[in-house]
Protein backbone atom coordinates (compact mmCIF):
# COMPACT_ATOMS: atom_id res chain seq x y z
CA UNK A 1 0.00 0.00 0.00
CA UNK A 2 1.29 3.48 -0.88
CA UNK A 3 2.53 5.93 1.73
CA UNK A 4 -0.25 8.37 0.86
CA UNK A 5 -2.92 5.71 1.34
CA UNK A 6 -1.47 4.65 4.67
CA UNK A 7 -1.32 8.25 5.86
CA UNK A 8 -4.90 8.77 4.71
CA UNK A 9 -6.04 5.73 6.71
CA UNK A 10 -4.11 6.97 9.70
CA UNK A 11 -5.65 10.45 9.52
CA UNK A 12 -9.10 9.00 8.92
CA UNK A 13 -8.76 6.64 11.88
CA UNK A 14 -7.91 9.51 14.22
CA UNK A 15 -10.78 11.61 12.85
CA UNK A 16 -13.19 8.68 13.32
CA UNK A 17 -11.87 8.11 16.84
CA UNK A 18 -12.50 11.72 17.75
CA UNK A 19 -16.00 11.62 16.26
CA UNK A 20 -16.86 8.48 18.20
CA UNK A 21 -15.64 9.93 21.50
CA UNK A 22 -16.73 13.55 21.12
CA UNK A 23 -19.72 13.62 18.78
CA UNK A 24 -21.33 10.27 19.52
CA UNK A 25 -20.00 9.96 23.08
CA UNK A 26 -18.83 6.37 22.71
CA UNK A 27 -16.69 5.19 25.63
CA UNK A 28 -13.00 5.74 24.85
CA UNK A 29 -12.14 2.06 25.41
CA UNK A 30 -14.82 0.81 23.00
CA UNK A 31 -14.02 3.53 20.46
CA UNK A 32 -10.30 2.76 20.34
CA UNK A 33 -10.86 -0.99 20.09
CA UNK A 34 -13.37 -0.51 17.24
CA UNK A 35 -11.11 1.85 15.32
CA UNK A 36 -8.17 -0.53 15.82
CA UNK A 37 -10.15 -3.32 14.12
CA UNK A 38 -11.13 -1.02 11.25
CA UNK A 39 -7.56 0.14 10.69
CA UNK A 40 -6.32 -3.44 10.64
CA UNK A 41 -8.89 -4.38 7.99
CA UNK A 42 -8.40 -1.19 5.93
CA UNK A 43 -4.62 -1.62 5.71
CA UNK A 44 -4.91 -5.25 4.58
CA UNK A 45 -3.42 -6.83 7.68
CA UNK A 46 -3.70 -10.65 7.42
CA UNK A 47 -6.84 -11.70 9.24
CA UNK A 48 -4.94 -14.32 11.19
CA UNK A 49 -2.66 -11.65 12.64
CA UNK A 50 -5.28 -9.12 13.74
CA UNK A 51 -6.30 -10.61 17.09
CA UNK A 52 -2.71 -11.45 18.07
CA UNK A 53 -1.68 -7.88 17.22
CA UNK A 54 -4.45 -6.44 19.39
CA UNK A 55 -3.50 -8.72 22.29
CA UNK A 56 0.16 -7.79 21.90
CA UNK A 57 -0.73 -4.11 22.00
CA UNK A 58 -2.84 -4.52 25.13
CA UNK A 59 -0.37 -6.77 26.91
CA UNK A 60 2.68 -4.75 25.96
CA UNK A 61 1.20 -1.58 27.38
CA UNK A 62 -0.49 -3.00 30.46
CA UNK A 63 2.47 -5.19 31.39
CA UNK A 64 3.88 -2.19 33.22
CA UNK A 65 1.03 0.31 33.26
CA UNK A 66 -1.57 -1.79 35.09
CA UNK A 67 0.75 -2.54 38.01
CA UNK A 68 1.96 1.05 38.32
CA UNK A 69 -1.52 2.57 38.12
CA UNK A 70 -2.91 0.10 40.67
CA UNK A 71 -0.08 0.65 43.16
CA UNK A 72 -0.11 4.42 42.63
CA UNK A 73 -3.86 4.51 43.20
CA UNK A 74 -3.58 2.51 46.42
CA UNK A 75 -0.82 4.78 47.74
CA UNK A 76 -2.77 7.91 46.88
CA UNK A 77 -5.94 6.58 48.45
CA UNK A 78 -4.23 5.79 51.75
CA UNK A 79 -2.67 9.27 51.83
CA UNK A 80 -6.09 10.78 51.12
CA UNK A 81 -8.08 8.80 53.72
CA UNK A 82 -5.47 9.23 56.46
CA UNK A 83 -5.65 13.01 56.25
CA UNK A 84 -2.06 13.22 55.08
CA UNK A 85 -2.93 15.65 52.28
CA UNK A 86 -4.30 18.20 54.73
CA UNK A 87 -1.34 17.69 57.04
CA UNK A 88 1.08 18.31 54.19
CA UNK A 89 -0.60 21.53 53.09
CA UNK A 90 -0.81 22.83 56.66
CA UNK A 91 2.88 22.25 57.23
CA UNK A 92 3.87 24.02 54.03
CA UNK A 93 1.80 27.01 55.13
CA UNK A 94 3.48 27.11 58.54
CA UNK A 95 6.92 27.02 56.97
CA UNK A 96 6.25 29.75 54.40
CA UNK A 97 3.97 31.96 56.52
CA UNK A 98 0.32 33.01 56.15
CA UNK A 99 1.12 35.72 53.60
CA UNK A 100 2.48 33.06 51.28
CA UNK A 101 -0.53 30.75 51.42
CA UNK A 102 -0.97 30.52 47.62
CA UNK A 103 2.70 29.56 47.26
CA UNK A 104 2.36 27.04 50.09
CA UNK A 105 -0.68 25.42 48.49
CA UNK A 106 0.99 25.30 45.09
CA UNK A 107 4.11 23.69 46.57
CA UNK A 108 2.03 21.14 48.47
CA UNK A 109 0.00 20.44 45.32
CA UNK A 110 3.16 19.67 43.34
CA UNK A 111 4.31 17.13 45.92
CA UNK A 112 0.84 15.61 46.32
CA UNK A 113 0.36 15.34 42.54
CA UNK A 114 3.27 12.90 42.20
CA UNK A 115 1.42 9.79 43.47
CA UNK A 116 -2.20 11.03 43.20
CA UNK A 117 -4.23 11.40 40.00
CA UNK A 118 -5.13 14.97 39.05
CA UNK A 119 -8.89 14.68 39.60
CA UNK A 120 -8.49 12.98 42.98
CA UNK A 121 -5.65 15.21 44.15
CA UNK A 122 -7.48 18.41 43.30
CA UNK A 123 -10.62 17.26 45.07
CA UNK A 124 -8.50 16.34 48.12
CA UNK A 125 -7.12 19.87 48.29
CA UNK A 126 -10.43 21.68 47.66
CA UNK A 127 -11.38 21.78 51.38
CA UNK A 128 -7.96 23.20 52.21
CA UNK A 129 -8.28 25.79 49.45
CA UNK A 130 -11.75 26.76 50.67
CA UNK A 131 -10.54 27.13 54.26
CA UNK A 132 -7.62 29.38 53.36
CA UNK A 133 -9.75 31.45 50.96
CA UNK A 134 -12.43 32.02 53.62
CA UNK A 135 -9.78 33.14 56.09
CA UNK A 136 -8.29 35.52 53.52
CA UNK A 137 -11.69 36.77 52.32
CA UNK A 138 -11.12 35.86 48.66
CA UNK A 139 -12.86 33.63 46.12
CA UNK A 140 -11.59 30.04 45.67
CA UNK A 141 -10.13 30.78 42.25
CA UNK A 142 -7.45 33.00 43.82
CA UNK A 143 -5.73 30.06 45.50
CA UNK A 144 -7.25 27.14 43.58
CA UNK A 145 -6.20 28.03 40.02
CA UNK A 146 -2.41 27.72 40.47
CA UNK A 147 -2.94 24.56 42.53
CA UNK A 148 -4.92 22.92 39.72
CA UNK A 149 -2.43 24.09 37.09
CA UNK A 150 0.66 22.53 38.65
CA UNK A 151 -1.19 19.34 39.57
CA UNK A 152 -2.18 18.80 35.95
CA UNK A 153 1.38 19.56 34.81
CA UNK A 154 2.72 16.84 37.11
CA UNK A 155 -0.05 14.50 35.99
CA UNK A 156 1.01 14.58 32.32
CA UNK A 157 4.80 14.22 32.71
CA UNK A 158 5.61 12.54 36.05
CA UNK A 159 5.19 8.75 36.52
CA UNK A 160 3.31 6.78 37.79
CA UNK A 161 0.50 8.62 36.01
CA UNK A 162 -0.96 6.45 33.25
CA UNK A 163 -0.52 8.65 30.17
CA UNK A 164 3.21 9.21 30.50
CA UNK A 165 3.81 5.63 31.71
CA UNK A 166 1.78 4.20 28.83
CA UNK A 167 3.54 6.45 26.33
CA UNK A 168 6.93 5.45 27.72
CA UNK A 169 5.99 1.77 27.33
CA UNK A 170 5.14 2.33 23.66
CA UNK A 171 8.35 4.20 22.76
CA UNK A 172 10.50 2.24 25.25
CA UNK A 173 11.34 5.37 27.19
CA UNK A 174 13.31 5.16 30.44
CA UNK A 175 10.93 5.85 33.34
CA UNK A 176 13.77 7.03 35.54
CA UNK A 177 14.94 9.70 33.11
CA UNK A 178 11.35 10.77 32.43
CA UNK A 179 10.76 11.15 36.18
CA UNK A 180 13.91 13.23 36.68
CA UNK A 181 13.19 15.50 33.71
CA UNK A 182 9.49 15.86 34.51
CA UNK A 183 10.10 16.81 38.13
CA UNK A 184 12.94 19.17 37.27
CA UNK A 185 10.73 21.11 34.86
CA UNK A 186 7.63 21.06 37.07
CA UNK A 187 9.46 22.90 39.88
CA UNK A 188 9.86 26.17 37.90
CA UNK A 189 6.42 25.57 36.38
CA UNK A 190 4.96 25.73 39.90
CA UNK A 191 6.30 29.29 40.24
CA UNK A 192 5.06 30.14 36.75
CA UNK A 193 1.61 28.77 37.59
CA UNK A 194 1.51 31.11 40.57
CA UNK A 195 2.57 34.14 38.50
CA UNK A 196 0.24 33.48 35.56
CA UNK A 197 -2.70 32.75 37.86
CA UNK A 198 -2.09 36.03 39.66
CA UNK A 199 -2.16 37.87 36.34
CA UNK A 200 -5.34 36.08 35.24
CA UNK A 201 -6.94 36.93 38.58
CA UNK A 202 -6.22 40.65 38.30
CA UNK A 203 -9.96 41.11 37.93
CA UNK A 204 -12.61 39.36 39.97
CA UNK A 205 -14.80 36.54 38.69
CA UNK A 206 -18.29 36.01 40.17
CA UNK A 207 -18.96 32.64 41.76
CA UNK A 208 -21.59 30.38 40.30
CA UNK A 209 -24.63 30.30 42.64
CA UNK A 210 -24.21 26.64 43.63
CA UNK A 211 -20.51 27.10 44.38
CA UNK A 212 -21.24 30.29 46.31
CA UNK A 213 -23.65 28.36 48.56
CA UNK A 214 -21.10 25.57 49.15
CA UNK A 215 -18.36 28.09 49.86
CA UNK A 216 -20.53 30.05 52.30
CA UNK A 217 -21.48 26.88 54.20
CA UNK A 218 -17.93 25.56 54.35
CA UNK A 219 -16.23 25.31 57.75
CA UNK A 220 -19.24 25.00 60.03
CA UNK A 221 -18.09 21.69 61.56
CA UNK A 222 -14.92 23.06 63.13
CA UNK A 223 -14.72 20.37 65.84
CA UNK A 224 -14.71 17.62 63.26
CA UNK A 225 -12.00 19.36 61.26
CA UNK A 226 -9.83 19.84 64.35
CA UNK A 227 -10.24 16.20 65.32
CA UNK A 228 -9.13 15.06 61.89
CA UNK A 229 -6.14 17.39 61.99
CA UNK A 230 -4.96 15.97 65.34
CA UNK A 231 -5.09 12.38 64.08
CA UNK A 232 -3.52 13.05 60.70
CA UNK A 233 -0.04 11.63 60.00
CA UNK A 234 2.93 13.97 60.20
CA UNK A 235 4.26 15.74 57.15
CA UNK A 236 7.53 13.82 57.45
CA UNK A 237 5.65 10.55 57.01
CA UNK A 238 3.83 11.74 53.90
CA UNK A 239 6.98 13.24 52.40
CA UNK A 240 8.81 9.96 53.01
CA UNK A 241 6.08 7.94 51.30
CA UNK A 242 6.32 10.20 48.24
CA UNK A 243 10.09 10.70 48.09
CA UNK A 244 11.32 7.18 48.90
CA UNK A 245 10.02 5.58 45.67
CA UNK A 246 11.35 8.55 43.68
CA UNK A 247 14.78 8.14 45.32
CA UNK A 248 14.79 4.42 44.49
CA UNK A 249 13.86 5.06 40.85
CA UNK A 250 16.55 7.73 40.52
CA UNK A 251 19.13 5.38 42.08
CA UNK A 252 18.34 2.80 39.43
CA UNK A 253 18.68 5.37 36.65
CA UNK A 254 21.97 6.65 38.07
CA UNK A 255 23.37 3.12 38.26
CA UNK A 256 22.35 2.36 34.67
CA UNK A 257 24.05 5.57 33.53
CA UNK A 258 27.32 5.38 35.48
CA UNK A 259 28.00 1.64 35.83
CA UNK A 260 28.89 -0.79 33.02
CA UNK A 261 26.54 -3.52 31.85
CA UNK A 262 26.94 -6.74 33.80
CA UNK A 263 28.12 -4.95 36.94
CA UNK A 264 26.52 -6.56 39.99
CA UNK A 265 25.84 -3.22 41.70
CA UNK A 266 24.16 -1.95 38.55
CA UNK A 267 21.89 -5.01 38.54
CA UNK A 268 20.97 -4.48 42.19
CA UNK A 269 20.27 -0.77 41.65
CA UNK A 270 18.25 -1.63 38.54
CA UNK A 271 16.07 -3.98 40.58
CA UNK A 272 15.42 -1.67 43.51
CA UNK A 273 15.06 1.26 41.11
CA UNK A 274 12.37 -0.36 38.99
CA UNK A 275 9.12 1.65 39.34
CA UNK A 276 7.16 -1.47 40.31
CA UNK A 277 9.50 -2.34 43.19
CA UNK A 278 9.73 1.30 44.30
CA UNK A 279 5.95 1.66 44.51
CA UNK A 280 5.63 -1.70 46.26
CA UNK A 281 7.99 -0.37 48.92
CA UNK A 282 5.94 2.82 49.26
CA UNK A 283 2.64 0.93 49.52
CA UNK A 284 4.13 -1.41 52.13
CA UNK A 285 5.41 1.54 54.17
CA UNK A 286 2.03 3.27 53.86
CA UNK A 287 0.21 0.19 55.13
CA UNK A 288 2.46 0.14 58.19
CA UNK A 289 2.99 3.84 58.94
CA UNK A 290 -0.44 5.22 58.05
CA UNK A 291 -2.28 2.17 59.34
CA UNK A 292 -0.54 2.39 62.70
CA UNK A 293 -1.12 6.16 62.94
CA UNK A 294 -4.82 5.83 62.15
CA UNK A 295 -5.43 2.62 64.09
CA UNK A 296 -6.54 0.74 60.98
CA UNK A 297 -6.85 -3.00 61.35
CA UNK A 298 -6.08 -5.33 58.45
CA UNK A 299 -9.67 -5.34 57.19
CA UNK A 300 -9.86 -1.53 57.19
CA UNK A 301 -6.54 -1.20 55.39
CA UNK A 302 -7.59 -3.71 52.75
CA UNK A 303 -10.93 -1.95 52.26
CA UNK A 304 -9.19 1.40 51.70
CA UNK A 305 -6.78 -0.12 49.19
CA UNK A 306 -9.57 -1.92 47.35
CA UNK A 307 -11.60 1.30 47.12
CA UNK A 308 -8.80 2.75 44.98
CA UNK A 309 -9.14 0.07 42.31
CA UNK A 310 -12.59 0.70 40.70
CA UNK A 311 -11.66 4.23 39.52
CA UNK A 312 -8.27 2.93 38.37
CA UNK A 313 -9.88 0.15 36.33
CA UNK A 314 -11.27 2.55 33.72
CA UNK A 315 -7.94 4.33 33.46
CA UNK A 316 -6.15 1.02 32.97
CA UNK A 317 -8.58 -0.16 30.27
CA UNK A 318 -8.45 3.12 28.35
CA UNK A 319 -4.67 3.13 28.57
CA UNK A 320 -4.53 -0.45 27.32
CA UNK A 321 -6.86 0.35 24.43
CA UNK A 322 -4.58 3.24 23.52
CA UNK A 323 -1.74 0.74 23.40
CA UNK A 324 -3.82 -1.48 21.09
CA UNK A 325 -4.48 1.44 18.73
CA UNK A 326 -0.80 2.40 18.78
CA UNK A 327 0.24 -1.22 18.04
CA UNK A 328 -2.11 -1.44 15.05
CA UNK A 329 -0.80 1.85 13.69
CA UNK A 330 2.71 0.47 13.90
CA UNK A 331 2.03 -3.07 12.66
CA UNK A 332 -0.03 -1.83 9.71
CA UNK A 333 2.82 0.30 8.40
CA UNK A 334 1.15 3.62 9.18
CA UNK A 335 3.78 4.46 11.75
CA UNK A 336 6.56 3.79 9.27
CA UNK A 337 4.85 5.86 6.58
CA UNK A 338 4.36 8.74 8.99
CA UNK A 339 7.94 8.62 10.23
CA UNK A 340 9.20 8.68 6.63
CA UNK A 341 6.96 11.62 5.81
CA UNK A 342 8.02 13.49 8.91
CA UNK A 343 11.67 12.91 8.08
CA UNK A 344 11.05 14.41 4.65
CA UNK A 345 9.68 17.63 6.20
CA UNK A 346 13.00 18.23 7.99
CA UNK A 347 11.10 19.62 10.98
CA UNK A 348 12.53 18.80 14.40
CA UNK A 349 10.93 15.65 15.77
CA UNK A 350 10.60 17.17 19.22
CA UNK A 351 8.51 20.04 17.81
CA UNK A 352 6.28 17.66 15.86
CA UNK A 353 5.81 15.53 18.96
CA UNK A 354 4.57 18.55 20.91
CA UNK A 355 2.29 19.85 18.13
CA UNK A 356 0.63 16.49 17.42
CA UNK A 357 -0.03 15.88 21.11
CA UNK A 358 -1.39 19.40 21.59
CA UNK A 359 -3.73 19.01 18.59
CA UNK A 360 -5.04 15.67 19.84
CA UNK A 361 -5.55 17.07 23.32
CA UNK A 362 -7.59 19.99 21.96
CA UNK A 363 -9.63 17.71 19.72
CA UNK A 364 -10.63 14.92 22.09
CA UNK A 365 -9.96 16.24 25.59
CA UNK A 366 -8.07 13.36 27.22
CA UNK A 367 -4.41 13.99 28.00
CA UNK A 368 -3.85 10.25 28.42
CA UNK A 369 -5.25 9.44 24.97
CA UNK A 370 -3.27 12.31 23.42
CA UNK A 371 0.01 11.06 24.90
CA UNK A 372 -0.50 7.42 24.01
CA UNK A 373 -1.77 8.12 20.49
CA UNK A 374 1.11 10.51 19.73
CA UNK A 375 3.64 8.01 21.05
CA UNK A 376 2.10 5.35 18.83
CA UNK A 377 2.31 7.60 15.77
CA UNK A 378 5.92 8.55 16.42
CA UNK A 379 7.23 5.26 17.83
CA UNK A 380 8.91 4.21 14.59
CA UNK A 381 10.48 7.62 14.05
CA UNK A 382 11.88 7.56 17.58
CA UNK A 383 13.08 3.96 17.32
CA UNK A 384 14.78 4.50 13.97
CA UNK A 385 16.39 7.83 14.76
CA UNK A 386 19.31 6.51 16.75
CA UNK A 387 18.34 8.54 19.82
CA UNK A 388 19.90 8.00 23.23
CA UNK A 389 17.73 6.99 26.22
CA UNK A 390 17.93 10.58 27.48
CA UNK A 391 16.74 11.94 24.14
CA UNK A 392 13.85 9.45 23.99
CA UNK A 393 12.86 10.56 27.49
CA UNK A 394 12.94 14.22 26.39
CA UNK A 395 10.75 13.43 23.38
CA UNK A 396 8.29 11.62 25.64
CA UNK A 397 8.18 14.56 28.07
CA UNK A 398 7.60 16.94 25.14
CA UNK A 399 4.60 14.82 24.15
CA UNK A 400 3.38 15.01 27.74
CA UNK A 401 3.55 18.80 27.79
CA UNK A 402 1.68 18.90 24.48
CA UNK A 403 -1.19 17.12 26.22
CA UNK A 404 -1.22 19.75 28.97
CA UNK A 405 -2.42 22.69 26.86
CA UNK A 406 -5.83 23.71 25.58
CA UNK A 407 -7.96 22.06 28.26
CA UNK A 408 -11.53 23.09 27.50
CA UNK A 409 -15.12 21.82 27.51
CA UNK A 410 -14.35 18.33 26.18
CA UNK A 411 -12.00 17.68 29.13
CA UNK A 412 -13.45 16.27 32.35
CA UNK A 413 -10.78 18.13 34.30
CA UNK A 414 -12.11 21.42 32.93
CA UNK A 415 -15.47 20.76 34.54
CA UNK A 416 -13.98 19.63 37.85
CA UNK A 417 -11.85 22.77 38.15
CA UNK A 418 -14.54 25.21 37.04
CA UNK A 419 -17.20 23.61 39.23
CA UNK A 420 -15.19 23.66 42.44
CA UNK A 421 -13.77 27.13 41.79
CA UNK A 422 -17.17 28.53 40.83
CA UNK A 423 -16.29 29.59 37.27
CA UNK A 424 -18.71 29.85 34.38
CA UNK A 425 -17.74 28.21 31.08
CA UNK A 426 -16.64 31.54 29.64
CA UNK A 427 -14.57 32.42 32.70
CA UNK A 428 -13.09 28.93 32.69
CA UNK A 429 -11.92 29.42 29.10
CA UNK A 430 -10.40 32.79 30.03
CA UNK A 431 -8.52 31.36 33.02
CA UNK A 432 -8.08 27.58 33.15
CA UNK A 433 -7.66 27.08 29.39
CA UNK A 434 -5.17 29.94 29.18
CA UNK A 435 -3.20 28.69 32.20
CA UNK A 436 -2.87 25.11 30.94
CA UNK A 437 -1.75 26.34 27.52
CA UNK A 438 0.87 28.70 28.96
CA UNK A 439 2.22 25.93 31.23
CA UNK A 440 2.29 23.46 28.33
CA UNK A 441 4.23 25.83 26.08
CA UNK A 442 6.63 26.79 28.87
CA UNK A 443 7.21 23.14 29.78
CA UNK A 444 7.92 22.31 26.16
CA UNK A 445 10.30 25.27 25.83
CA UNK A 446 12.37 24.00 28.77
CA UNK A 447 12.30 20.47 27.35
CA UNK A 448 13.46 21.76 23.96
CA UNK A 449 16.29 23.68 25.65
CA UNK A 450 17.47 20.47 27.32
CA UNK A 451 17.21 18.73 23.95
CA UNK A 452 19.55 21.29 22.40
CA UNK A 453 22.01 20.97 25.28
CA UNK A 454 22.25 17.16 25.08
CA UNK A 455 22.22 16.93 21.27
Short characterization:
Helices cover 82% and strands 0% of the residues. It contains 22 helices and no strands. It holds the Pfam family GntP_permease.
SSE topology sketch:
Elements: H1 3-23, H2 28-42, H3 47-82, H4 84-96, H5 101-112, H6 118-136, H7 140-157, H8 162-171, H9 175-200, H10 209-217, H11 222-231, H12 235-258, H13 264-272, H14 275-294, H15 298-307, H16 309-331, H17 334-345, H18 349-364, H19 367-383, H20 389-402, H21 412-421, H22 425-454
Helix pairs in contact: 1-2, 1-17, 2-16, 3-8, 3-14, 3-15, 3-16, 4-5, 4-12, 5-6, 5-7, 5-9, 6-7, 6-21, 7-9, 7-22, 8-16, 8-19, 8-20, 9-12, 9-20, 9-22, 12-13, 12-14, 16-19, 17-19, 18-19, 18-20, 19-20, 20-22
Amino acid sequence: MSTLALLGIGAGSIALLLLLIIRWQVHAFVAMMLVSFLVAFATGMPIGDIISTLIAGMGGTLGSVAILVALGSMLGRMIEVSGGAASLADRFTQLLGPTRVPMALTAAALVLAIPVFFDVGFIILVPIVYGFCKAAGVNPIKFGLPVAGIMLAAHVVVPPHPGIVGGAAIVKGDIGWITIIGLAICIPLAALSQVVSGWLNRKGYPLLPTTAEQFAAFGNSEDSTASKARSAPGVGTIMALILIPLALIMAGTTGATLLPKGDSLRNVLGFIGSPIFALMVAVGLAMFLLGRNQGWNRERTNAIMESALPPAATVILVTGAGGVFAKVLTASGIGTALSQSLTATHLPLILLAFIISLALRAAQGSATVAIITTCGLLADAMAGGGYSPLQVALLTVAIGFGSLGLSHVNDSGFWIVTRYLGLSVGDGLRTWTVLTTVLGIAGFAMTALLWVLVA
